[in-house]
Amino acid sequence: QGKQKKARKYAVMKRMISLRDERIKEKDRAKAPMKKKEDSSAIKEREVPQHPSCLFFQYNTQLGPPYHILVDTNFINFSIKAKLDLVQSMMDCLYAKCIPCITDCVMGEIEKLGQKYRVALRIAKDPRFERLPCMHKGTYADDCLVQRVTQHKCYIVATVDKELKRRIRKIPGVPIMYISRHR
């Protein structure tokens, strides 16, 4: 007759005694935290993060019709794929007048894409689009849009880029417009 194998219990941990246990010597024992007496004359301070009132739509007078919409490169490309008229579909979405705004960085990005995206370039040069000049170095459009939206909370950002949407969601009070299911 051989030894009987004993199945080991799953996630078993050795028992540990707490530092307040009586079996531990007095000098090694953890002390109970002493409660400080509260001074009734002291000013009570609570840590509550203050958000500016401009983040709440009922107080934000900047974010109202006519809406200024910052358009990203891929938003224009996806609107072409979905066969949407950009300005008309924005107005249908918001039920108000919309002014699509396009920065120099986004324009440079579309121009860099070359001949394949000439339709997107023609749409971006539409006179209904408002051109916003950029004063910074480089032509990385995502950084430009995030920086502009952080400074001025009067824009709606139109993008399909997941990474850019994730970055903009971290900025409170900035709405995002995107294309899903060809709408």
CATH topology of the domain at 62-177: Rossmann fold
Name the strands of the widest sheet in spatial order: 3-2-1-4-5
Helix content: 25-40%
CATH superfamily of the domain at 62-177: 5'-nuclease
Structural class, judged by helices and strands? Answer: alpha/beta
**Strand portion, in percent?**
5-15%
Helix count from the secondary structure assignment: 6
Task: Itemize the secondary structure elements and their pairings.
Blueprint: E1 67-71, H1 73-81, H2 86-94, E2 98-103, H3 104-113, H4 118-124, E3 130-132, H5 141-151, E4 155-158, H6 162-169, E5 176-177
Parallel strand pairs: 1-2, 1-4, 2-3, 4-5
Helix pairs in contact: 1-4
Structure description:
The chain is of the alpha/beta class and 183 residues long. The chain has helices at 73-81, 86-94, 104-113, 118-124, 141-151, 162-169; strands spanning 67-71, 98-103, 130-132, 155-158, 176-177. The protein has a domain at 62-177: Rossmann fold. It contains 6 helices and 5 strands; from the N terminus they run βααβααβαβαβ. Strands 3-2-1-4-5 form a 5-stranded parallel beta sheet. Helix 1 (73-81) packs across helix 4 (118-124). It is elongated. It holds the Pfam family Fcf1. One of its GO terms (cellular component) is small-subunit processome. It is found in: Nucleus, Nucleolus.
